[in-house]
Structures are given as C-alpha cells and as structure tokens.
Amino acid sequence: MGMNMTEKILAAHAGLKEASAGQLVTCKLDMVLANDVTAPPSFKEFEKIGGPVFDNTKIALVPDHFTPNKDIKSAGLSKAVRDFANKYNIINYFEVGRGGIEHVILPEKGIVAPGMLTIGADSHTCTYGALGGFSTGVGTTDLAVALATGEAWFKVPEAIKVELTGDKPADITGKDVMLTLIGMIGVDGALYKTLEFSGEGVHSLSMDDRFTIANMAIEAGGKNGIFPVDELTMEYIKDRVKKPYTIVEADADAKYCDTVKINLNDLVPVVAFPHLPGNTKKVAEIDDIKIDQVVIGSCTNGRIEDMRIAAQVMKGHTVHKDVRCIVIPGSQQVYKEAVKSGYIDIFIDAGASVSTPTCGPCLGAHMGILASGERCVSTTNRNFRGRMGHVDSEVYLAGPQVAAASAILGKIAQPGDLR
Amino acid sequence: MALTGKVWRYGDNIDTDVIIPARYLISFDPQELASHCMVDIDESFAQNVKAGDIMVGGRNFGCGSSREHAPVAIKASGIPVVIAASFARIFYRNGINIGLPLLEIGDDVEKISAGDRLSADTSTGEIKNLTTGDIFHARPLPGFVEDIAKAGGLINYIKEKKINA
Known about the structure:
Mean pLDDT of chain A: 98
Number of helices of chain A: 13
Number of helices of chain B: 7
Radius of gyration of chain A: 20 Å
Shape of chain B: globular
Structural class of chain B: alpha/beta
Strand content of chain A: 15-25%
Distance between the termini of chain B: 29 Å
Oligomer: heterodimer
Number of strands of chain A: 18
Low-confidence stretches of chain A: none
CATH topology of the largest domain in chain A: Aconitase, domain 3
CATH class of the largest domain in chain A: Alpha Beta
Order of helices and strands of chain B: EHHHEHEHEEEEHH
Largest interface: A-B, 49 and 41 residues
Strand order of the largest sheet of chain A: 13-12-18-17-14-15-16
CATH architecture of chain B: Alpha-Beta Barrel
Mean pLDDT of chain B: 95
CATH architecture of the largest domain in chain A: 2-Layer Sandwich
Low-confidence stretches of chain B: none
CATH superfamily of chain B: Aconitase, domain 4
C-alpha cells in the first residue's frame, strides 16, 4: 500500500519497510533540539537516566528565548545550557551573538535536511518540514530520554493533504497562506495529524514562505507540516547541507484522511484576531483598529525575505507617532544580510527599533511586553490571551507586509492602503 | 485507582500560555509553577485548589507551546487527573511522560460542570459524575503508551526497561 511522506520517514527511522496511520513506532533520531527554557529541566531528567549523550553531533542547543539574558534567573538557565554543552562537547551549541532563533538557524546552517527526523523541545520544531523532513515538538521528558537514547516513540499520524493550486500573488506571503488555512480548518483541525502540502502551487512558494507555513502547523494542532522537495529546496540546501540526506516522495496511492484545497490566486492579505490563530479575517474587510506596537521577526517571520518585504513597504515612510515598531532579524546571518541590503537603514530611518535576534516579545518574555489594553500587530505565531504581556492586551497575527503597513498607518492596514 | 474530587471547569482551547504564562518560566520548580497556574484566566485557582480536585477542559486542552512546565504546574497544584474533550498532542505526551493521567471523553465533557464531584478510575477510564449520576468512558491509551502511564511516566519506564534489558 502507498505511503505518504511522513509514513515513509517514520518507517525508515523505525527500521520498517512500511508504517501506516495509528501504528506505534520507536524511531532513531537524526537531530535533537532544545532551548534555554526547555533544556535545563530536561538535564535534570537526563541525569536520572545517566549520561553520556547518545551522539554529541546530533544535538543542537540554542539559548534564544530569554536571551540576551533578561534577568538573573534566566541567566542561570542559559548558564545551565552552556555548562551542559561544554560537559558533553555539544557541537551545535549556538552562543548569543553566534546564532539566533533556533528554527531560523538550524535550516540556515544546514543542520536539518530533507528526509531527516528531528525532535525539539519547542513546539515550532515543525518548521523543518519545509525541507521535506519530519520534525515535531516534544516536552522536557521526551527530550531528556532522546538526549540519552537517541530514540523517541511516535504514533504514526493520519495525514491531511493540502493541495495548493495557482500562483501566489506578489502581495501575498506564506503567512497569509497559513493563516487562511488555519482559519479554514480551525486551531484543532489537524489535531494529532500531519499536514502534507502538495500541488503545483507549492512551486510558487519561496523557501521562506514554506518555513513560515510549516512553522505554524502546530497552530492547527498538527504533529508536523511537510513539503515536497523541489528545485527551490535543492537550491536552498546546496551550499548548506554537508551530510547525506534522503529525498522522500509520497506514493501516488498514498492514503489521506482528508484533502483541503487552496487556490493561491484567490488569497488576499489576512490578519488573525485575538485570541486564536484561527480567527482569520481579510485586512480589506475590517474596521479601523488602532494599534500601539508592531513586531516583525520570530521563528515564523524573522528570515531575510521577511526583512526585505517589510523594508520595501517601509521605505520612504515613517512609523506612526503612536506606534513602537520592533524589528528582530531571526539570526546573525539574517541581520548581516539585512544590513548589507540596506533594510536596517530603512527601518532605523523610519523610526523603528532594531533588536538582536531573540524570541523575546513573541512569548511575552522581554523586549516588547504589552501593557493593559495595548494592541500589537505581530508577525509571530500565537495571539493567545496574555501571550505578549498583560492579560488585557491583544495580539493580531499577520505577515510582514501587513505588519509594516500597519506600523506606518497606526492601524491594521495593508500596503495598498499607503497609496 | 479511583480518584474522587471537585471539578475546576474550563473551556475549549485552553493553551499552555494561560496554564503557565511565559513570564514564570524562569523557574522550573514545581511548587513555584503551581503558585501561578491558570493565573491569567482564573486567579482563584492557585489560591483555592485542594489536593485531589479534578481539572476538566473542553476541546484541544493544552494547545500551543511545548512547555512541560504546564502539566507540571497542574500536577503540583494537587490535581491528580485532567479530563477533556480532546488534548493537544504535545500536552498529551507530556502528561503521560510526567505521570499525570489524562482522560479524553469527547462531547461527554459537556455533562460536567464547575463544582461537580467526580470519581475517575484512571486504570479503566471510567468516570462517574457523582453530582448528576452520569457515567462516561475515556478512550484507552494505545499499546506501550499505557505501559509508560502505568510506570508513572517515561523516565521510570526507561529505567525499568534498562534494568530488565
């Protein structure tokens, strides 16, 4: 019987010829990831099992959530990660100033590749599905066991096929595609399932679009999101991935529990209203909503294309007097490229604040916390109650073009509104 | 084992950010986390929860962040079992892995209200609403996942496997 992409990857890593939805499998892991919030408690559990780590080249540790350390306690968390990395000689440890946000740097540095199986103690680990691998988020205990054994158990998920047709219009971003999809199927529409993207429309999505889309599979409840490997993927990994990898394709007779169709030509800029990522509305159809803050960055939209799109919208304009606009390149490399391309000049000239890479405001950690009653348009991934600060603040999720236009006009807007 | 307790009832899509907001993640001490559990939607919870009380949610309970601090905070509050229409998958895994029983009962959850007294048998999955007389059955855990739960969590399970290997 035919297998979909996720079934093939899980089967291959479980040493099986076949795997199908519902089956329990134990898989060998290619990469295990954690950050400064999730790694320290897992070290405690890890010590209960006892060292050493299963493979010091297959672990990535990235202090990115409360970094640069926001206070004494968070400094202790970062120190625990650093000490563990030194003790076990973890090759892929990324110190502040030499990395950035975990899900931006792992693809960027060629640490994840097509066909790989990655788990990370961070829910947005599903990002790497953009490269045609299986990756999913886990908690502290799963991570501890993975650090020690290099294995994890999975229930092979049912698969929803997301069939993309048409060509993505120039003013549409990957964020619009994903917020539209989550609006259609709901925040638990893919619960326990995989979202497998397919169809001709995939080829009109840039790699950065695909990272954004796969990144938010979790926001539909998904176990993972996964894209086929095409010429764009190959171009992206060409100078990055130095190790062997496997290109996995779904069989023609693969099984799917459901099919969702999206014609990319029909998409318009959207925004997800508080307090769920599935509260998607068309920007053109909403009333004036005044805002206090804009955040452009995160593991969802902190890549170079996001910086370019925001800079193009912002060029020659200034940030509205009542708005703080915070731009956060997702990695040192993105930051450097944005400087070289003149994007950072545009942001600073417009009156935006540019920050070193950090998850910071996305989870209400630091670097842009909202006061009671404040509203923020953000390119991040969650708009849950209190996510970015006070429980009575509001987050509206959008792509970088909508965020930049909103920063200029002081209300939720799209680039067309600037004319 | 049958557990009997009073219900703390919450709605659909209770996310891990409200179970334990990120501003408290600078600590992973269970009691410290418990002292802030649910604070953004229910300030009374941490102050008034009694050991043995049962938490009941709607659909997609525990969605969002992978922070295991969320089920840890609930467990350290004295809650011995969480019942919901459905659980978000990372939360579900985390609950099993730390030895916090989670019972999934679909739409039957509508027949449970705040303050009801429930009796829940985590080994059979049978739940009795002692206030209304209703009886529900939770979906059983598949295969070796049940063994993980029975061992009291993943670390115990792995240690037992190591000893028996």
